[in-house]
Specification:
Layout lengths: L24 H30 L6 H11 L4 E4 L30 E4 L2 H16 L4 H11 L6 E5 L4 E6 L5 H9 L10 E6 L21
Parallel strand pairs: 4-5
Antiparallel strand pairs: 1-2, 3-4
């Protein structure tokens, strides 16, 4: 989606005027007014449709819902309720607790919605996932295109049915949530895939591993 074909939305209604009416000033005036209306409203409609629906880089919430259905990718994640969480209430038989011993909760679970920009990125990744051959060079070109405004990202193919995405920029919570809860990063069938934030220092005993209190588990 680096380039989108330019469309001309103009409608030359005066071309429909028969030659014998070329001197009919009133008719020409009506057609000219009609053409001006079409030029303003039709152009505005189609430009808005491309911006808000067709182009995943700028799509609105409505457009993203349309693409979500087309690409079969939900833009939210449902989480079940936590049965071990103390819940405030008055139904003693249901395990509810009193004041100071519990908190409000949703007995049916919760839904988490991704931010707008993350939804756009998720759908673009999903589109590439469906159309990609899954080769490392192709995926690396995709990463360079999708994350150009964030930083460097690339794929390591270990050659043993395993691969790892490396992001050389801080992975925000929404991206981490996307990568962890959606199987959205392209990979060939049967290949194990992981991802890593290269800006973090991970605990380990290898040359680049971090020590206690200065690193985190991967």
């Amino acid at each position: 989606m680096t380039t989108i074909q330019e469309f001309s939305f103009s409608v030359d209604l005066l071309r429909a005027l028969l030659w014998q009416y070329e001197k009919a000033e009133n008719l020409q005036s009506l057609l000219a007014d009609k053409k001006a209306w079409y030029d303003a409203n039709q152009t505005q409609f189609w430009e808005g449709w491309i911006r808000d629906v067709f182009d995943l880089r700028t799509a609105s919430e409505f457009g993203l819902i349309v693409w979500s259905v087309i690409l079969d990718l939900p833009l939210f994640v449902n989480s079940p309720p936590d049965p071990g969480k103390p819940t405030f209430g008055f139904d003693g038989a249901g395990g509810d607790v009193n004041f100071d011993n519990g908190n409000f909760t949703d007995s049916s679970g919760s839904s988490y919605y991704l931010p707008l920009e993350t939804k756009r990125l998720a759908l673009r990744l999903r589109y590439f996932q469906l159309t990609s051959a899954g080769t490392a060079p192709e995926i690396n070109r995709m990463l360079k295109h999708l994350f150009a405004d964030r930083g460097k990202a690339f794929l390591n193919d270990f050659g043993n049915m395993a691969q790892q995405y490396v992001f050389a920029f801080p992975v925000t919570w929404d991206l981490a949530y996307l990568f962890n809860n959606y199987d959205i990063l392209p990979r060939p069938a049967g290949v194990s895939s992981t991802w890593v934030d290269a800006t973090l220092t991970y605990f380990g005993f290898e040359p680049y591993g971090g020590v206690f209190d200065q690193s985190t588990l991967q």
